[in-house]
């Protein structure tokens, strides 16, 4: 199974302040900014690019149900997840299951950019939230 780094997700409390830092201090360009109220997402997201490397800034829109809000309450703001692009998400999930690595089925979705994704269970990844994703419309 081929994998390559796709992006890092960062949980933030104030999206515009974080965007300003990434643009003004790190020299990033904002690729997109959107809001998702889908169950299990409930966040406003800004995709930042620095020389081809992507960071997703994730700000909760619902402090009761957003997984980003829960993350910030438990661990504080900062790195939320690391994402790796795989050739075929379904095949990658099957391979993980063969290795007894669990995925969190309720996180499986397709985002507005056509990226299919799922999170691996942090209990099986040394505590790190890892996302596997693919871009089927690019094949």
TrEMBL record:
For whether the record's keyword set contains Transcription regulation, the answer is no
Domain VOC, by residue range, is 4-135
Q: What domain of life does the UniProt record list for this protein's source?
A: Bacteria
Q: Which UniProt keywords apply?
A: Metal-binding
Q: Which SUPFAM superfamilies match?
A: Glyoxalase/Bleomycin resistance protein/Dihydroxybiphenyl dioxygenase
User: Which InterPro entries does the entry link to?
Assistant: Glyas_Bleomycin-R_OHBP_Dase (IPR029068), MeMalonyl-CoA_epimerase (IPR017515), MMCE/EMCE_epimerase (IPR051785), VOC_core (IPR037523)
The family note in this entry says: Belongs to the methylmalonyl-CoA epimerase family.
Q: What is this protein called?
A: VOC family protein
């Amino acid at each position: 199974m081929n994998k390559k780094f796709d992006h890092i997700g960062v949980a933030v409390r104030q999206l515009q302040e974080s965007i300003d830092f990434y643009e003004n201090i790190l020299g990033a360009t904002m690729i997109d900014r959107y809001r998702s109220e889908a169950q299990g997402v409930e966040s406003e997201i800004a995709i930042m690019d620095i020389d081809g490397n992507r960071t997703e800034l994730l700000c909760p829109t619902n402090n009761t149900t957003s997984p980003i809000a829960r993350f910030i309450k438990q661990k504080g703001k900062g790195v939320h997840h690391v994402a790796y692009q795989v050739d075929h998400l379904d095949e990658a999930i099957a391979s993980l299951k063969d290795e007894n690595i669990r995925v969190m089925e309720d996180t499986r979705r397709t985002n507005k950019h056509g990226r299919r994704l799922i999170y691996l269970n942090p209990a099986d990844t040394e505590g790190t939230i890892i996302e596997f994703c693919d871009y089927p419309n690019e094949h």
